[in-house]
């Protein structure tokens, strides 16, 4: 049977990326033909600016070389324009006389530079800035001539001007607006940018209207359009002499062919969420030429997202859809950092937070509306661009971090990358990702060699920023400099995982509203794309089911990751660690003796005191776990679980000469009351007996600090990747009150928190004011929450002792020994050695 | 002629789970059961850093390693791209509800591979 024929018009980044995605999931489905107007294989157009500036070569920016097309049996007609498509006969006709029939057609024609319709635009030495030919022409001109004018002070124009200047030309940028890049920057940042470019020798004519371009032969005949350009003339009559004019006033989707084909065109070729044209179901459009929900995108990440969706449909999977993207901007001029996103201009209904340091060349403006970030414009220090973009996308309320917002994420206690905030200033040997030991050089190498563009791709290939994520900003900067990638992301809700488009809240709501009791039912009801989910969604669904329907839904151990399935922490060599519970961090001679005996008996190699005031036995073989638990005879410390871990205490008034309250006793009471409490993530408490706070209550999910007159309760602290100081919540009189208020807070967190969301993130999401309303202002509601939690915890089994009740699969602990099977079951009919040819 | 050794009943392996089979020499063999009831066997060792795959989470026809979440295909032992690596595969036969492994493979296949060691450093840094 003949393969269906897929023809693509356009050989640029979005189109070829689509083919790559298609070949990945359906390598042999189509007979593929590609037409490209340029006589080159697919190259990285974004990196033309570094090529112009002499920082990279043309060879270096090729993404798919000729061999790639051959390897994948793609017929490439390079340097060959398509003139006509006959939609009735389904034939593409090219300028070189080639005709190719198609079953499906992709239009990936990109965009065209917009040329000002002024006299002299066709003179020799007047260029656009779009492709390799333009770039080469500029490089050649720079070698021969000395003066250049760039019309257009936008992103592209400034990159062209910078490149020409680096090649030794005297460059004047002509801009019709009041400040540079007015679509990406506000006035202050635009002027800062102009100042710093002017310091490098670039000249500017602002608010200037170009009237015409004068040619060499104009004087003699007063006849335009002859010879080489010699000057630019403005409306006010002034002239600037030049031998090169680059027009960079904007781009327009290239829809000429589509219009000729009578496809619906409106700011681009109109497509639906599957990138199919609305006119002809056999024809798709992708990339800069396509208009999706009225927007033609020009940044690489949204275009690649489109390519992925289109490939999914071409492969006949039919399950992807493109929802549009939010985008942001960065300028690729080495040594100049700027970033903008969203509504950075602000308006009458917005508030602005501004930081200016003209001496250091730093300017930051954050635009807020209704307590949410709606825009950001950064100049000189952009390391937090990614973070602001994330806040903007998520629409998170900011009241709790508003005072710290301007100073960025890196000022809220990052660790792991030597305090670097400027990727450009780092050496290749400097470590960017402290979790996975990835250096700047390794990231650059992977980006170049594997053609990576997005944060996601870099994470997958190098693991940089894939663990704790605190170096994300640095990695984004490196992608920017190396590949010319950009920040952009799908809007609003982040899907729970790749199996679904639904976010955490939607899944939680559906489980509650429709009384769903099993993970299978949830996946079926919400139309999961995979039969049994993945390692990300399975534990999440399991938690949502048992926390929403505690007495009805079954806790399925196969939906839990190994630590919670085996009730111990797996180690790098496949052994486990065991942490028995020590209430409030106190132990006895008898307990210590039993522990010592177990260490000897089972030859446990390491005994370590933990940060949570307990003892960790490391290197226990899985087959010994049950016996170790039995012999120690202490309750599970849940050190492996998304549950209450430990209650750290100081010595308190029992012994301490400074102590004002009996913190140890309250710690023990809290631990007894909350033991076995499962939660969206691990939970840690601490109780200190005086404000010296030796138990470090300030970085715990709930931190209690004793004062002479009672107890202060602090919530949502965290001592991990980002040190987050707990927020003062309420001052209480008695220990009973501490239990009740803590219980109400925990029950809300258990019911409303998203899986793997620590209390700090939960509280940031819902806001401290909300918690105050539910817990402080509503006494009845608070008591009800505390009662609910107590009843949920009432008959919680200890998984180290009550295996059946806790649903522990005991088969996991002992390996099967084939010999034993045969011996013990010798008479059982089916278990005999069988032979076959 | 393949000599088949009976291991266990198929339903003794948890659905979407695994059992490990100890051997006289070499690391354990992990035997997996997918949601569709298919049985696969791999050496119980992730190609990345030697994690015990039998302790991982089984989904589709893959298992996610419990140490660093690499995804290994149960059908051929390969890591899912862009990760690279492969873990040795073992032949499986299911007959009359009983799972069999090849006796020869149990005795000799991939017996040279080891797990990473953990525990106290043998050479003190300040020595």
Q: Can you characterise this structure?
A:
The complex is a heterodimer of chains A (837) and B (127). By secondary structure, chain A is of the alpha/beta class. Among the domains of chain A are: 5-111 and 252-322, FAD/NAD(P)-binding domain (3-Layer(bba) Sandwich), CATH 3.50.50; 126-249, FAD/NAD(P)-binding domain (3-Layer(bba) Sandwich), CATH 3.50.50; 504-560, no CATH class; 643-801, Sulfite Reductase Hemoprotein, domain 1. Chain A has a 6-stranded antiparallel sheet with strand order 23-24-25-22-21-28. In chain A, helix 1 crosses helix 9 (300-314) and helix 22 (735-752) packs across helix 25. The two termini of chain A are 37 Å apart. Chain B is mainly β. Chain B has a single domain (4-108), classed as Rieske [2Fe-2S] iron-sulphur domain (Rieske Iron-sulfur Protein), CATH 2.102.10. The radius of gyration of chain B is 16 Å and the shape is globular. The relative contact order of chain B is 0.23. The model of chain B has no long low-confidence stretch (mean pLDDT 92). At the A-B interface, helix 18, helix 26 and strand 40 of A face strand 1, strand 2, strand 5 and strand 10 of B.
| Alpha-carbon Rg of chain A, integer | 33 Å
Radius of gyration of chain B: 16 Å
Q: Give the assembly state of these chains.
A: heterodimer
**Class inferred from helices and paired strands of chain A:** alpha/beta
SSE topology sketch:
The complex is a heterodimer of chains A (837) and B (127).
Chain A: E1 5-9, H1 13-25, E2 31-36, H2 48-52, H3 66-71, E3 75-78, E4 82-86, E5 91-94, E6 99-101, E7 104-107, E8 111-113, E9 126-128, H4 132-144, E10 147-151, H5 155-166, E11 170-174, H6 187-199, E12 203-205, E13 210-215, H7 218-221, E14 229-234, E15 239-241, E16 244-247, E17 251-253, H8 256-260, E18 269-271, E19 283-285, E20 290-292, H9 300-314, E21 326-330, E22 338-342, E23 351-357, E24 362-369, E25 372-379, H10 385-394, H11 402-405, E26 431-433, E27 438-439, H12 440-450, H13 455-462, H14 472-483, E28 488-489, H15 504-513, H16 519-525, H17 537-548, H18 562-566, E29 569-570, E30 576-578, H19 589-601, E31 606-609, E32 615-620, H20 625-632, E33 644-649, H21 663-674, E34 683-688, E35 702-707, E36 710-715, E37 718-719, E38 723-724, E39 727-732, H22 735-752, H23 759-766, H24 768-777, H25 779-793, H26 818-824, E40 834-836
Parallel strand pairs in A: 1-2, 1-7, 2-3, 7-19, 9-16, 10-11, 10-16, 11-12, 18-20, 33-34, 34-35
Antiparallel strand pairs in A: 4-5, 5-6, 8-17, 13-14, 14-15, 21-22, 21-28, 22-25, 23-24, 24-25, 26-27, 29-30, 30-32, 31-32, 35-36, 36-39, 37-38
Chain B: E1 2-9, E2 17-21, E3 29-33, E4 39-43, E5 57-59, E6 62-64, E7 71-73, E8 89-90, E9 92-95, E10 98-102, H1 103-108
Antiparallel strand pairs in B: 1-10, 2-3, 3-4, 4-8, 5-6, 6-7, 9-10
